[in-house]
Amino acid sequence: MRTRITRWAVGALSAFAVTAGMLAPIPATADVPAGYYDAAEGLTGGELKTALNDIISDSTQLSYDEVWDALKASDEDPNDPNSVLLLYSGESRSKDANGGSVGDWNREHVWAKSHGDFGTSGPGADAHHLRPTDVQVNSIRGNKDFDNGGGEVDGAPGNFTDDDSYEPRDEVKGDVARMIFYMAVRYEGEGGAPDLELNDEVDNGSQPLMGRSSVLLQWHSADPVSDVERTRNDVIYEQFQDNRNPFIDHPEWAGEIFGDGSTPDPDPEPEPEPGCGSAPELETVAFSSLPWDARMTIEDVQNGRTGETYENREGVLPDCEDGYYDLFHVGYEDRVIAGDGGEFYYTPDYYETFQSVDLDS
């Protein structure tokens, strides 16, 4: 399975790109009660996280059955009051079609409940991270962490998945990120709930961890808060749980808690390409002998697809100056195409045994 090259992806070995500044505070359309966040004003980092945990932990606990009613209200299709909008596919589906059969929608745990083994109570019944999702698409997402890449998901165009990660469609990338941020602040190990934390990994399994944090921060920046999210936040607060998702009301707080106080650039300008030699000491592999997915990746690149940014800090590509090159993942992460100046290098061993590709063979 080829990894999709996404415009928000960054190189596997490159530094995390950020730009100065913060996201703008929430517009006045959100119905934030006066004084709700007073205890968090002026704080940063761990102090801000602690203050927000205190604020949003003052809430009403729903049962898992009550979540059905919450989602029918919070995710109602604004153009059809008898339907809900499904998170990953964007489809409008009848509120009555909830259940576990093919064609139904069910309750997707955006923070997968196995990441912390919290089941369907406590954090498992928190409507701020539960969303209506097609039963089969929900099954495909499973308990995977979030990251860029993979093959397109059947039944959810614009969504991509591979063995250990899931990438939602562009229109809800930020929604997903802000739900994950909420969970990592709301659940800090109190009352028998797990201490949920972000990390920058995938394949976290049953650990109370969810990744990738760097990608989630990029999604948060690239897909700003929408009116749909604001309305959903208001409905959950006013009608069901009596608490809010602070990263919808104050998106600038995500960088303060999970980043370095700045906002990641969702589409950074590429660095100038330095000179790169032909690397004659490398073994040469014929284009025709490459696996089919590697050949397809090269053809995509030659047809104008852009890749990820790879920083050659370790001199992995011989005869190339330190600097930035385009990087193209192929299949599993240990098979990579790097292109610079029209030349390509291939490795089956994750950056360790590069071969020069003879494009004419």
TrEMBL record:
Keyword Ion transport: no
Residue numbers spanned by region Disordered: 146-169, 257-277
This protein's record includes keyword Secreted: no
Record-linked Pfam families: Endonuclease_1
Keyword annotations: Hydrolase, Nuclease, Signal
Signal peptide start and end residues: 1-30
InterPro entries (alphabetical): Endonuclease-I, His-Me_finger_sf, Ribonuclease/ribotoxin
PANTHER family reported in the protein's UniProt record: ENDONUCLEASE-1 (PTHR33607)
Protein's UniProt name: Endonuclease I
